[in-house]
Amino acid sequence: MDDDKTLLSRIGIDYDLPDTGCCGMAGAFGFEKDHYDISMQCAERALLPAVRNTDPTSLIITDGFSCHEQIKQATGRKALHLAEVLEMYLQGHEI
Q: Which structural domain, as residue segments, surrounds residue 27?
């Protein structure tokens, strides 16, 4: 995460990096019926509460596809990949 933090700081993003642990999705694991409950328990440990407690206007940044899906399906929030945030910055969007 050191490189990600460096990039975010260089483009002027004030960020919070909560201890979110695993999103619980782990590739296809969380999509499987037999693993859904444990997947959600993992996500509810720290990640999903952190997302829910984040201001609705704040960006949610995660690079993992699985994390994107878990966040979207459980909270309705859209997470962005770091590359998308950098693209927004380079195109002059306010971030």
A: 2-12+20-90
Strands 79-80 and 60-61: parallel
With b meaning 16 or more CB within 10 Å and e meaning fewer, what string describes 15-32?
A: eeeeebebbbbbeebbee
Q: Does 95 fall in a domain?
A: no
Decide: 67 and 79 in contact? Cβ < 8 Å: yes
Over residues 17-44, the pLDDT tens digits come to: 877 678 888 877 888 889 899 999 999 9
pTM of the model: 0.85
Tell me the C-alpha distance between 72 and 30, whole Å: 13
Tell me the mean pLDDT in the region 46-70.
92
